Every structure is written in structure tokens, then in C-alpha cells.
Amino acid sequence: MASSIQVTVKQTEPMTVAFIGMWGPYTQIPEAFGKLYQWIGQKGYVPAGPPLGLYLNAPGQVPEDQLLWELRSPIAGDVALSEPDEQGLGVKQVAAIQVASTMHKGPFEKVEETYKAMAEWVMQNGYEMSGPPEEVYFSNPAETRPEDLLTEIRFPVRKK
Questions:
Q1: What is the pLDDT of residues 65-98, one digit of tens each?
Q2: Number of structural domains, the chain?
Q3: Out of 18, 55, 62, 141, which could bridge 66 as a Cys pair, Cβ 3.0 to 4.6 Å?
Q4: What are 15's strand-pairing partners?
């Protein structure tokens, strides 16, 4: 499978992000993005790029109710950093990192296949994971057919 994906190793850009820290099933993602973007609007922040998800553990590693994840939106301008509030919403600076990156086209339910292919590619090409995986969402699932969704899968990596 690894040979069927195209992987690029690249450096991400540092960015300021509004974020919401979450735990529990991924079925909460649409609601959590709603809270995040409502908060961004209330604060007068300006989104500056596609939203991201950071996944700190995974199904199969922990029960669904113990999944830890964070949704992020890059924001423009000179925005004050803030610790998470009582709803888990805040603003932070995210450093640039080296990632192995590939595009997943299709429904979110099939992203696991791309994750497996990426993990295989990382091992076969002399890299190791150096942090939790990220997903960058280039399509709005409310406006895009599942088979046409575009999601960039990023694995933070370093050479072994």
C-alpha cells in the first residue's frame, strides 16, 4: 500500500492558532469545530487557513471515551496568546516541524488506510515519528461529497 501514496517530507510554517482541546469520540468533531469558530468570531479573530486536527492517541490504543484530540484554526494578525478557558478554548503559537505529508481523498471513515500506508512509508524510508499526527482539512464536509473530501495527513518525523 505504501507505494500507492505520494509522500513529501517538508517543514510546516510556525503559526498562531485558536484551539479547542477535546476528549471522547470523534463524532464530536463537527460540534467542536462549531464551538471553535463561534469563539473565533466572538473574539473578532480572522481565520487564516484551513482548520487542523491533532490526534494525541487513537482508537484501538484507548477506549473511545478516552480519545484526546485538539482542533485548531490558524488566525491572522497580532493576537494575544491565552491559556484554555473553561471550555478548552485558547490561543497559542505552534512551532514549525518536519512532517511526512500525503493527501487523503475520500471519506473520513477510510482515513485509517492512509494512516497505515503512511506508517509503512515512514518505517521504509528511515524516519521515525516524533509527535502526534495532524490532519489538515481542505474540504467542508457539509458542502462536499464524502468521496471528494481532501485531507492532508501529516506525521511529524525525524531521521533515525
A1: 999 999 999 999 999 999 999 999 999 999 999 9
A2: 1
A3: 62
A4: 94
